[in-house]
Model the fold of this input.
Amino acid sequence: MKGDRVEIVVDAGDTTRTYEVVASRAGRRVETAVRRGVVEVSEVTRSGSVVRTARFMATRVLALVEQPVPREDAAERAARTSRPLGEDPET
Done:
């Protein structure tokens, strides 16, 4: 979903580097995969087409942090939309 992000911290020899892959548009998501010693982080559309991919050697990756956007469930969405305008939600 839009706003999902993955941060990748990579060992760059004498220092570390941080990279981010963000789902930049509505309907896109970020997927991660580890295959044959390579970490792939891809931004994917609803239909499954890959928009962009970041690849890193697995031996160099220090941290992989997935940060999904908080999602509200159906009950929260219904409670928010069923309240009349001007009504105080605290009462």
Summary: The first strand starts at residue 5 and ends at 11.
